[in-house]
Write a structure and sequence with these properties.
Distance between the termini: 12 Å
Family: Belongs to the ROK (NagC/XylR) family.
CATH architecture of the largest domain: 2-Layer Sandwich
Strand order of the largest sheet: 3-2-1-4-7
Shape: globular
CATH topology of the largest domain: Nucleotidyltransferase, domain 5
Largest sheet: 5 strands, mixed
Number of strands: 12
Pfam family, one: ROK
Order of helices and strands: EEEHEEEHEHEEEHHHHHEHHEH
CATH superfamily of the largest domain: ATPase, nucleotide binding domain
Bound molecules: zinc ion
Helix content: 25-40%
Structural class: alpha/beta
InterPro entries: ATPase_NBD, ROK, ROK_cs
Protein name: ROK family protein
Number of domains: 2
Length: about 325
């Protein structure tokens, strides 16, 4: 049967009814409210709007931050603090007519890529999304890695640089602090100051730099913009080399807004993996761009929704 997937993001809430084949049959999106009550209200409204009048077996809320599965809450969410501590099943469940499941948003996106995107056809997948932060998810032997409390798979918060920049999580030198879209912005601003004569430096002197400026200037051949992306890819590769050794995935898929830059980031990440990871994992893994784009969250959440028997509502 169909299932509803809800991708609760820092700026928008997207909900969709998804068929077992991965087709989105109906979708809505709302801006993310900043208060806990309004947040619950909007999630309920979105689910009921898309689900009404359709055969739906279950719904899954994909939420940002560290999930405590036993209590169906998010305990820490730097990008959406309003969601912290809300007993989601208790508050949202009774307002919607379907069995409710809670998962981490990046784990859901990873599951979406595994079922319908860049990871379909493989059993072992590592997925990373480079946006404001870095989310991640691991599929091992066709099962989503959740850990003891449902908080596993937080790949963005592994330390890759002991004295590196401060991360949104409070730690220093997390992968997120060195290879996210935010990290690209910081690195680009620093590079612009150090190289005022470069295209990047001249643009920064006229106006604030946007993430896409760096990619655009790099494509036009600006060496400084290119080196900003290459340096980002290097840090990404340092993190990925560890994941390759630990999880031995067939595919590492990288998505998120920063993947506009594609191989301008991934080429140096692949180089770093070749240098740092070990055979046979290093020789097997294929590092590629994720294919579903922003829809991976809704699709993956729907595919993780459970029916009243506890089985995946979409099957598989
Ligand atoms: Zn962190």
């Amino acid at each position: 049967m169909n299932a509803v997937g809800v991708d609760v993001g820092g700026t928008k809430i997207a909900a969709g009814v998804v068929s077992p084949e991965g087709e989105v049959l109906a979708a809505v999106r709302y801006p993310t409210p900043r208060s806990p009550d309004k947040l619950v209200e909007t999630m309920v409204r979105a689910i009921n709007e898309v689900g009404s009048g359709k055969d739906v077996a279950g719904v899954c809320l994909a939420v940002p931050g560290f999930v405590l599965a036993q209590k169906d809450t998010v305990v820490f969410s730097p990008n959406l603090p309003a969601i912290e501590g809300i007993p989601l099943k208790e508050r949202v469940g009774p307002e919607v007519g379907f069995p409710l499941t809670i998962e981490n948003d990046a784990s859901a996106a990873a599951w979406g890529e595994f079922r319908f995107g860049s990871g379909s056809g493989v059993d072992d997948l590592v997925f990373l999304t480079l946006g404001t932060g870095i989310g991640g998810g691991v599929i091992s032997h066709r099962a989503l890695l959740r850990g003891a409390q449902g908080s596993g798979g937080e790949l963005g918060h592994v330390t890759v640089h002991a004295t590196g920049p401060r991360c949104a999580c409070g730690n220093r030198g997390c992968l997120e602090a060195l290879a996210s879209g935010t990290a690209i912005g910081r690195r680009a601003r620093e590079a612009a100051v150090e190289n005022p004569g470069s295209a990047l430096g001249r643009l920064a002197a006229r106006r604030g730099l946007l993430g896409e400026d760096v990619t655009e200037l790099a494509r036009e051949g600006d060496g400084v913009a290119l080196s900003v992306l290459e340096e980002t890819g290097r840090w990404l590769g340092i993190g990925l080399a560890g994941f390759v050794n630990v999880f031995n995935p067939e595919v590492v898929a990288v998505g998120g807004g920063a993947m506009e830059a594609g191989d301008l980031i991934l080429a140096s990440a692949r180089r770093e993996i070749r240098l740092r990871a070990r055979p046979p994992s290093r020789d097997l893994v294929e590092v590629k761009e994720a294919t579903l784009g922003p829809e991976s969250g809704v699709l993956g959440a729907a595919a993780l929704a459970r029916n009243t028997d506890g089985a995946y509502a979409l099957g598989g």
